Amino acid sequence: MRIFLFGAGYSAKAFARLVRDDAERIDGTTRSEANFAALEHASIAPLLFDGESPAQPLLDRLANSTHVVISISPGSQGDPAVALVEDALSRPGNTIRWIGYLSTVGVYGDHDGAWVDETAPCHPTSRRSLERMEAEQVWTALSERHGIPLAILRLSGIYGPGRNAFINLERGTARRIVKKDQVFNRIHVHDIAGALRFLARVNTGGVFNVTDSEPSPPQDVVAYAADLMGVTPPREVPFAQADLTPMARSFYSENKRVSNERIRALGYEFAYTDYRAAFSAMWRADSWR
Predict the structure, then answer these.
(1) Residue at 265 is within a domain
(2) pTM of the entire structure?
(3) 202 lies in a domain?
(4) Which residues pair with 4 in a beta bridge?
(5) With helix as H, strand as E and coil as C, how does the chain read?
(6) For position 77, what pLDDT does the model report?
(7) Which of 53, 67, 88, 90 shows the shortest CA–CA distance to 203?
(8) What distance in Å separates the CA atoms of residue 7 and residue 150, rounded to the nearest whole number?
(9) How far is residue 152's CA from residue 263's CA, in Å, rounded to a whole number?
(10) Which of 107, 124, 176, 202 has the most beta carbons within 10 angstroms of its beta carbon?
(11) d(Cα 70, Cα 5) in Å, to the nearest integer?
(12) Which of 160, 257, 158 is nearest to 213 (CA)?
């Protein structure tokens, strides 16, 4: 595989580390040269891309890749990677044969705590989720025009090394906000990388929820992490009394249980099916920082 990563951030770097021994080359974009060293440490050849004017080497590398992963957020003007991939696919001799798009379970909107799968209607309520849904539609149309498999991975709340309740407890920023019947799905970054590798190896397209198997109240996750650390968890704060940013509060306006049955039925085995397995493993291995 020759892999091109649009947006070589947290999830994309995890994917690169997982597949670097199998990949002929991994290229990845970043907005700043300050990130070059971190990308190179993950075996990614860094390329500058500000979302507007790509340099010619970027376009050449893109057209010569076999697998393209989109891990950048769309904006009000759409996804800046679409036009570049369209251009690459229009080039005679391009070698692109699979596209993976990292989206969000936020596109489903609120379902009053009910289970949803990939066939559920999408009713995004936030601007960021609406932009994701619109981007999914644009990428789907591009895929159909060029006959290239497109895998849309709808991700739940991402955590892993450096991004987890252990970190928040250590910093004193952890909070246990309680809203009646509220649950969230979440996903360890290793399983994002694993799902990408699983789908890319067989060039599989479709929509897939990439999420754990146990939607849970967020306050329970903090309590479990505190128990592993041997520290007292922060007190519970009723949602109505919580001092939250508008973005943080918006997450609590949606309540759903997201099923991962489709990708499991294809044969993907999650490394961490619930937060307890993941947090226990990170604590034992001291890999949470």
Answers:
(1) no
(2) 0.97
(3) yes
(4) 27, 68
(5) CEEEEECCCHHHHHHHHHHCCCCCEEEEEECCHHHHHHHHHCCCEEEECCCCCCCHHHHHHHHCCCEEEECCCCECCECCHHHHHHHHHCCCCCCCCEEEEEEEHHHHECCCCCEECCCCCCECCCHHHHHHHHHHHHHHHHHHHHCCCEEEEEECEEEECCECHHHHHHHCCCCEEECCCCCECEEEHHHHHHHHHHHHHCCCCEEEEECCCCCECHHHHHHHHHHHHCCCCCCEEEHHHCCCCHHHHHHCCCCCEECCHHHHHHCCCCCCCCHHHHHHHHHHHCCCC
(6) 87
(7) 67
(8) 17
(9) 11
(10) 107
(11) 6
(12) 257
Is residue 266, in this structure, part of any structural domain at all? no
For residue 142, what is the domain's CATH number?
A: 3.40.50.720
Q: What is the pLDDT of residues 8-19, one digit of tens each?
A: 999 999 999 999
For 188-236, write each residue's pLDDT tens digit: 999 999 999 999 999 999 999 999 999 999 999 999 999 999 999 999 9
Do 190 and 180 fall into the same domain?
Answer: no
Task: Specify if 141 maps to a domain.
Answer: yes
Question: What's the domain range around 112?
Answer: 2-157+186-210
Average pLDDT of the residues of the chain:
96
Do the Cβ atoms of 3 and 67 come closer than 8 Å?
A: yes
The verdict on 151 and 179 lying in the same domain is no
Same-domain check for residues 81 and 192? yes
Residue partners of 270: CB distance under 8 A and separation at least 6:
191, 194, 212, 213, 260, 264
Instruction: Work out the pLDDT band at 64, boundaries 50, 70, 90.
Output: very high
Tokens standing for residue 151? 């895998």
